[in-house]
Amino acid sequence: MKDLKIELGTIMCSERLPRVAVVVSKTNEFVTAKLLEGALSELQDIGEVTVIEVAGAFEITAASAIAFERGFDGVVALGAVIRGDTPHFDYICQAVTIGLTELSTKGKIITFGILTADNVGRQLNERAGLWEIKALKPLRRFCS
User: Fold this and answer.
1) What CATH number does residue 130 fall under?
2) How many domains does the chain have?
3) Which pLDDT score is estimated for 23?
4) 95-123 mean pLDDT
5) Residue 74 CA, distance from chain mean position
């Protein structure tokens, strides 16, 4: 990617707009749909944006890695994991966090939008709205 250079944590594009993949989980869609709406609104004039839907949060890491292999410059990872009666919640949260962290340590640009909650409720929906407002602001500077 000779047309990109990293300088003090800021990505600057020299000849083209960035390609951004929004990888979104279909599980808990009542939350992820809100996250997706906010992400698309924030990214509408940033460059080429492609939405990639996956079944659940666990699949977000693999889809993100594939997106980078196919030439995307950045990924916005969106999901919602709600605790149940089994340790499955912990395994999924740990797997997606470690997977996306490993991608980011390889120089990949990832916005982490995986929300977690102990139960379904108003707090989860409020956090979805707050995340969409705050977390995507740095991507607007993706190509300045």
Assistant:
1) 3.40.50.960
2) 1
3) 97
4) 88
5) 9
**Taking the complete model, does pTM exceed 0.85, yes or no?**
no
Instruction: Give CA torsion, residues 10, 100, 26, 11, to 10 deg.
Output: 10
Residue 142 lies in a domain: no
Q: What is the dihedral of CA 137, 141, 143, 144, to 10 degrees?
A: 150
Query: pLDDT tens-digit profile of 30-61?
Result: 889 988 988 888 888 778 899 999 999 999 99
- Residue 10 is assigned to a structural domain of this protein: no
pLDDT tens-digit map of 65-101:
999 999 999 999 999 999 988 899 999 999 999 999 9
Distances (CA, A) of 53 to 32, 33, 63: 10, 11, 9
Instruction: Check if 34 is active-site.
Output: no
Domain holding 42, by residue range, is: 17-136
The one catalytic residue in 16, 88, 134, 140 is 88
Torsion of CA 41, 46, 52, 55, to 10 degrees: -50
Query: Within a domain: residue 141?
Result: no
